[in-house]
């Protein structure tokens, strides 16, 4: 804490307490919200988990996106289900494991999924989900009394101010960031301190298929383009294929090590952007320690709430936005299911549709849906006659499609032309069956 103002220091110390004391006022039957992903506060979560384990609280609704290590090990234990009632807005491995255990335990319902669009999440909390308390991790207070939300602005900054009570965990490992990320000590009800390292997310090594797909995408990206990348080995491989480009910009939901590498190399300088020129814009970050260190006190990066970053109208103000996302399956007309597997919710809509629409609305922009043609070691075609789950991206919005077998621009094509183009992008072993199914559906 770098504080020269004695009044601010006194205010900080007045609100400073232990994690156990900070959560002691949270009651059964109330609704709390948590910061997302890396901003989930370990000490507070452990203290709240201890209360639940002791039977001191019951039926507490917990709203959040992206459960990471701290939340998984504290509140998302099967033994606490019922006392803790998870309301996940983006399912991941921890929730899928809880759901599996609940099914084995007499088909017990333990996790509640809240369908949403990421860009609308601040409004959902403001108008539809009253929050009694918000728990979040922030960067240390500066000499003017300001923390920052660090890796996570997203819905977190808005809910922090709308909640009935705001409890923050101050951690020197949380990077201090620029943009609309400031939180003043006067806005906080209770403060705890910790120095736990942030969880790290290291992308998987790119496969040969990832590299083929990334090369197709890199050929489409022009110098001066503005990038949005999703998470995983493929988007990281795309970043690796862009190292010879120049004057790229970043306006992305998620900041990743791949994008940071392009910034470090000078490939990204944001000089051609129409808004936030000279700045790489993001709403949340997942990466490794080196990336968090790069983010810390770096004026080249700016963090904004998700209802700004993911607003299609805002996205479209930059020219040549290239949005790269993936999907679980695509039907023969171009509709995408990016969130449902084997009859179950697997993840969520996230911000995919926000950027699909924003990128296509930008002058010269391209929305790209890129994926391997198969799953399960080649046993399952990801191009299918009909989707097995909800539509995440409608066929009317899908633009460029890329698999290891090529590229298709679906805009302006009839349903018959789309089916023909997508069958060519499918694995050769699947094409005969897909052609037969397309005929049965009167597509060709």
- At CATH level 2, the architecture of the largest domain is 3-Layer(aba) Sandwich
Taking Cα atoms only, what radius of gyration do you get, to the nearest Å? 23 Å
What class do helices, strands and sheet pairing give? Answer: alpha/beta
The dominant shape is: globular
What is the spatial order of strands in the main beta sheet? Answer: 8-14-13-12-11-15-20-24-25
The CATH homologous superfamily name of the largest domain equals Acetyl-CoA hydrolase/transferase C-terminal domain
Overall CATH class of the largest domain:
Alpha Beta
What's the total number of strands? 25
Q: Low-confidence segments, ≥5 residues, pLDDT <50?
A: none
First-to-last CA distance: 67 Å
Which range best describes the helical content: under 10%, 10-25%, 25-40%, 40-55%, 55-70% or over 70%? 25-40%
Q: If you consult CATH, what is the topology of the largest domain?
A: Glutaconate Coenzyme A-transferase
Q: What count of structural domains?
A: 2
Number of H- or I-type helical stretches: 16
Strand content: 15-25%
Mean pLDDT: 97
Q: Sheet with the most strands?
A: 9 strands, mixed
Domain Acetyl-CoA hydrolase/transferase C-terminal: 287-438
Protein name: Acetyl-CoA hydrolase/transferase C-terminal domain-containing protein
Family: Belongs to the acetyl-CoA hydrolase/transferase family.
Keywords: Hydrolase, Transferase
């Amino acid at each position: 804490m770098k504080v020269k103002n004695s009044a601010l220091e006194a205010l900080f110390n007045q609100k400073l307490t232990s994690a156990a004391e900070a959560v002691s006022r949270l009651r059964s039957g109330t609704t709390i919200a948590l910061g997302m992903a890396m901003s989930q506060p370990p000490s507070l979560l452990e203290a709240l988990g201890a209360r639940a384990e002791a039977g001191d609280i019951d039926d507490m609704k917990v709203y959040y996106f992206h459960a990471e290590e701290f939340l998984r090990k504290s509140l998302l234990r099967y033994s606490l289900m019922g006392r803790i009632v998870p309301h996940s807005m983006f399912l991941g491995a921890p929730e899928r494991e809880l759901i599996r255990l609940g099914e084995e335990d007499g088909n017990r319902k333990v996790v509640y999924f809240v369908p949403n669009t990421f860009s609308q999440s601040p409004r959902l909390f403001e108008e539809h989900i009253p929050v009694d308390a918000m728990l979040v991790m922030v960067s240390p207070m500066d000499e003017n009394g300001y923390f920052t939300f660090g890796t996570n602005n997203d819905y977190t900054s808005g809910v922090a101010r709308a909640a009935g009570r705001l409890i923050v965990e101050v951690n020197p490992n949380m990077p201090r960031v620029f943009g609309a990320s400031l939180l003043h000590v006067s806005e906080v009800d209770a403060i705890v301190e910790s120095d736990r390292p942030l969880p790290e997310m290291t992308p998987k090594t790119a496969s040969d298929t990832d590299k083929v797909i990334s090369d197709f995408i890199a050929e489409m990206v022009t110098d001066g383009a503005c990038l949005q990348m999703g998470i995983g080995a493929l988007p990281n491989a795309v970043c690796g294929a862009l190292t010879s480009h120049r004057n790229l910009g970043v306006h992305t939901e998620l900041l990743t090590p791949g994008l940071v590498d392009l910034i470090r190399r000078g490939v990204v300088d944001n000089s051609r952007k129409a808004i936030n020129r000279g700045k790489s814009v993001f709403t949340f970050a997942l990466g490794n320690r080196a990336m968090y260190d790069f983010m810390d006190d770096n004026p080249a990066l700016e963090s904004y709430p998700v209802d700004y970053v993911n607003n299609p109208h805002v996205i479209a103000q930059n020219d040549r936005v290239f949005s790269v996302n993936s999907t679980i399956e695509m039907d023969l007309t171009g509709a995408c299911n990016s969130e449902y597997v084997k009859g179950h919710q697997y993840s969520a809509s996230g911000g995919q549709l926000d950027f699909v629409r924003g990128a296509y609305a930008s002058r010269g922009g391209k929305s790209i849906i890129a994926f391997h043609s198969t799953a399960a070691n080649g046993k399952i075609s990801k191009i299918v006659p009909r989707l097995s789950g909800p539509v995440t991206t409608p066929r009317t919005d899908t633009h460029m499609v890329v698999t290891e077998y090529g590229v298709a621009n679906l805009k302006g094509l009839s349903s018959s032309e789309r089916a023909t183009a997508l069958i060519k992008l499918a694995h050769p072993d699947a094409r005969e069956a897909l052609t037969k199914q397309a005929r049965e559906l009167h597509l060709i």
